[in-house]
Design goal:
PDZ_sf; cytoskeleton; 29 strands; single chain; alpha+beta; PH-domain like; eight-stranded antiparallel β-sheet; seven-stranded antiparallel β-sheet; SNTG2 protein; PH-like_dom_sf; 517 residues
């Protein structure tokens, strides 16, 4: 997706916002700021321009100004009136900060002082200007060309209103003066959008939240490159504009991630392919409120679920993961969606295995991944579409791993005997003596009618005998009960998906609600 548009760059320190232009390509987001450049002549810096204006009997200097030291901004040209003195020079632009008037430095002058100086400077006024690239948005400077001469401002001069210097000043000369026209060999200037920062989108991430908080920025977000370079806070005029840009940038990041995955998969065996990867925010449990969430990079590859602090770039990087879990032994669970009517949907996808979470945070699009020993990771993504992709990807990665593995065997015990418990994709459940290998019992997946556990090590599995139709209870004790329960769930879900894929799709809460919206 390619896109261009006007936005604001918000400075959290000064609390000012500046006009910028965004340029989005397939691989890069570029921030442009307006500046005045020399397009012909000897002056290539265009940093400071000194211009002589001849005050005209009608129209005066032909410009208006805003700002002043009392508002911690320089005095800037806010209007230039077409075909009048300032416009005729071809060297002055809306957004130019006035540095000197007739050799007097006015960088620290108030609005009224500059107005007084300009109005009493005589018929010929020499001003030195420099284009203010970061003009605060409260000055409301137009981005366009000189306006119509009828566009006058009136009333008392104020830093937030234009003081018109198109009116006659204290001129002693009543005869028409020659126009302030550019001389042939003088340099020519133009106001242009110039690239000031380019952020590569490969492995980039987006944040809509104020740093270290759950406070959502209003119509604003930040894009951070892989190397940590930030766009700064991009602010938009409407919620629709913000949403459109967020989607467009996210789409391009996703497309590049897909390319990276394809390249990585060329170096991997068919059983070790990357199914999905991307940035999320992980909630840090038991920490103070200043560090609620931290960026993490997740990947589903081969038989494993990886959690990284930075994305894996080379083949060797895969061993640097903070955590690695076997896909058969994890459980994906959606917690929050944000619906179109701003209601929360608290969703428990998988009944029978419950885990209590404090869901009081304000972030939508949350999911958790439960792992062994009763532990879990709680994540948040920026868009509902991302949540749907993670849900689908976890399902696919787990189902593929179950089919590849075929079976998993766990050591267990009951009444002092050491036993082996096998979950097999084709055969179902088998329990046998670890020493003699004698099969003690075997049941199909369809015969499992229920289960209960003590939340620690013991589980009761309720099977229906096909002949007698009676329920038989089998009790077992495992070192890591959670991992075994997750494995049973993974195998049964994969079995159902192989028989009835439509049923699995119908259970997708994220896709059902996100795509209907």
């Amino acid at each position: 997706q390619t896109k261009t548009g006007i936005a604001l760059l918000y400075d959290e320190v000064s609390e000012n916002a500046y006009d910028i232009r965004l340029k989005l390509t397939k691989e890069v987001l570029t921030i442009q700021k307006q500046d005045v450049v020399c397009v012909s002549g000897s002056d290539h810096s265009a940093n400071h321009r000194t211009v002589t204006l001849r005050r005209q009997p009608v129209g005066g200097l032909g410009l208006s100004i805003k700002g002043g030291a009392e508002h911690k901004v320089p005095v800037v040209i806010s209007k230039i009136f077409k075909d009048q003195a300032a416009d005729q020079t071809g060297m002055l632009f809306i957004g130019d900060a006035i540095i000197q008037v007739n050799g007097i430095n006015v960088e620290s002058a108030t609005h009224e002082e500059v107005v007084h100086l300009l109005r009493n400077a005589g018929d010929e006024v020499t001003i030195t200007v420099q284009y203010l690239r970061e003009a605060p948005s409260f000055l409301k400077l137009p981005l366009g060309s000189p306006g119509p001469s009828s566009d006058h401002s009136s009333g008392a001069s104020s830093p937030l209103f234009d003081s018109g210097l198109h009116l006659n000043g204290n001129s002693t000369n009543t005869a028409p003066s020659s126009p302030s026209s550019p001389i042939a060999n003088e340099p020519k200037y133009e106001k242009r959008w110039l690239d000031t920062l380019s952020v590569p989108l490969s492995m980039a991430r987006i944040s809509r939240y104020k740093t270290g908080t759950d406070k959502l920025r209003s119509n604003a977000f930040e894009v951070l490159a892989l190397d940590g370079v930030s766009t700064g806070i991009l602010q938009f005029y409407t919620a629709q504009e913000s949403a459109d840009w967020l989607r467009a940038i996210s789409t391009n990041i996703s497309d590049l991630t897909l390319q990276n995955m394809k390249m990585a998969n060329k170096c991997c065996s068919p059983s070790d392919q990357v199914i999905h990867m991307g940035w999320v925010n992980e909630r840090l449990e038991g920490t103070d409120s200043s560090q609620l969430y931290k960026f993490k990079f997740l990947a589903l590859k081969g038989s494993s679920f990886y959690i990284f602090s930075t994305p894996p770039v080379s083949t060797l990087d895969w061993v640097r993961a903070e955590k690695i879990y076997n896909l058969c032994e994890v459980l994906f669970k959606i917690h929050k969606l944000w619906l179109a009517d701003d209601c929360w949907l608290q969703a428990n996808l998988y009944l029978g295995i419950h885990q209590d979470f404090d869901l009081e945070d304000q972030r939508p699009y949350c999911f958790s991944v439960m792992v062994g020993h009763g532990k879990s990771h709680y994540f948040n993504v920026e868009l509902g579409s991302e949540l749907a992709v993670w849900e689908k990807s976890f399902q696919r990665a787990i189902f593929l791993e179950v089919q590849r593995t075929g079976s998993k065997t766990y050591m267990c015990s009951w009444q002092g005997d050491t036993l082996c418990f096998t979950v097999d994709f084709a055969l179902g459940f088998t329990c046998f003596d670890s020493k003699t290998k004698n099969v003690l019992w075997r049941f199909k997946f369809s015969q499992l009618k229920g289960s209960s556990d003590d939340g620690k090590t013991r589980v009761k599995l309720l099977f229906q005998n096909l002949d007698t139709k009676q329920i038989e209870t089998k009790e077992l004790e495992f070192q890591d009960l959670t991992a075994v329960l997750h494995c049973i769930h993974s195998f049964i879900a994969a079995k159902v998906a192989s028989v009835d894929p439509v049923f699995i799709d119908s259970q997708s809460i994220a896709r059902k609600y996100m795509y209907s919206n």
